[in-house]
Amino acid sequence: MEGLISPAVKKPKLEPKEEAPDLGFMNTRKESCISAAGQDLPEDFLEPLEEPSLPVFVPNTSTPITSQLQSMASAELNRHGCRQFWKAGDFDGKGFPVPGSVAGGIDHVRVHPRFLHSNATSHKWALGAIAELLDNALDEVNNGATFVNVDMIRNPQSNGPVLLIEDDGGGMNPDSMRGCMSLGYSAKSKRANTIGQYGNGFKTSTMRLGGDVIVFSRNHAGGSSTQSIGMLSYTFLRDTSQEDIIVPMIDYEIKPFGLKKLVRSTLDDWNHNLETITKWSPYHTETELLRQFTGMKHQGTKIIIYNLWEDDQGQLELDFESDPYDIQVRGANRDEKKILMAKRFPNSRHYLTYRHSLRSYVSILYLRLAPGFRIILRGLEIEHHNLANDLMFAQEQTYRPHGGPEYLQKDKQMVAVVTIGFVKDAKEHIDVQGFNVYHKNRLIKPFWRIWNSASSHGRGIIGVLEANFVEPAHDKQGFERTVVLGRLEARLLQMQKNYWNTNCHRVGYFNAKKKRTPKLLYPPKGFMLEPGFENRAVTRMNYKLDEDPSVLAKSNLSTNGTSFITHEAVIPDHLLGDASSRQVMEIQMNKSLLLIQQPEEEPSSVCMDDLGAESLTREDGENKQLKAKVLDLEKKVYEIKGCVEILTKERDSLRMQLEIEFKQRAFEDEELRKRLK
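Below the sequence we write its predicted structure tokens.
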């Protein structure tokens, strides 16, 4: 078996093999990510463990190795431990005592299996873990990948659901497979256009989704083709009480006559790895394992995650049943109210559904997709969506982090173009807002709510930007709290507030703090506007320009529809007769006065201040008159109602009297007839 922490031993020993001929169906492609990047690994990193350092294979003098393996595998996968992720780390692991590996007198650090669980807790959100695996597939575009497929298939042993993620990228050779299964080794950190960089995403994401994962990968590079199988099984490590992380892996070399076992140490070790994989994976024979490469061309990778975690109610955390073309999550991330709202407000559906729907989340996960690359979810391709298309009244603003000019010139990525606007459903006053911050094309902060106002301020504003100058956290669901991030946050908050103050009225909100531009419906008192639209002149009334040109107050006005905006005004002090006129002209000189052109047949000489006071006084008087009229009308209505009631009573009284008189006359007529007979 191969271990995550391996001691230094001799070079791998391979069986004698013939020269691999050039296969017709295997055209030379780009080398795999790991080999092409030329990652710097220790010379002894990929070497096999010494026999004494493998606890599961330490032979007992009285018991054959095969019997020891069978006794370790006698327990079923789900018999021990907890199936809930947040409780799965509670086991002691008191099994086979293993001394620390020593090479050259220096002890090697050991890694307990519990670390796999504690390391995976960095993912609080299951869909974020799936996104990590999609990132790995998207990075393979450089190696010819054209698709990544995410699906649910059945476990051939238990018929339970397992998660499948496969791509047709460059695949992994045996060395790359061991680097993938190890902690902290990544060739992508040396590449500028890749998302992964920490060498930890595969371990954290797979262990967050399920207890076990098995990987099938085929690689063709350098004229040779290989295929490898590796298993990282938390169930195996826990149920056999291991105290070190042991990862069984087997490799094959593809020959014209078939497959040839690629032995790195001894054939017995290779067989032991195979036996462990078949006992603890869903595929119990070597034939079933090799069948998983069916349909895979000359390169590609298939990841199968099984023993998926359950929630507190004993149901699978991943929901495969609600939508046959989606994978959703149960629990607090699922809000039925938001699901109903998403149907009513289609432009806001991503904000309302991305927390529980993988299809919704992945559609906005990348700012751009490589041409021809497809993401397929349960047989149906995911349609890429740009959140900027959901905006109206959109604006673009540029943000550049604080720093010296030399610093900014060295790094051209130290700039972000922020697209900000109202979501198209904002007129419905739906509570949707936040900035979507991408890093190297990957969505890190979806709908980041920066302005937490107690009122409706900021509601409906969405922003989209790519900030490559801030560092994402290891789970890629947030950024490291740095000074640069703090400055970005403060600037985005200011952008949102400015945009709100300027545009909130366009979607039906009222901004009480907005300063109104002073307007004049008439020229100031004692002044008039000369005819014409350009080069207007403001003069005192009854002054003639030819008689006294020195009194001219020149004002440059430019037309704008039916209005003209004052750009410059030069007013001699002796022309200003009173304080109100002076105030008006100072407003003009500050370039903040908007003059509305009025019909010539309605001249007037009312000061703006006088006009405002007169308007308020007139409105107050009219209001008082209207209130008085309303009171009078209400009084009259009350009086009329009283009259109606009196008349109604009189009518009823007269009707009763008439009925009595009618009956009396009828009785008298009857008596008179009887007498006549």
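The longest helix spans residues 608-676.
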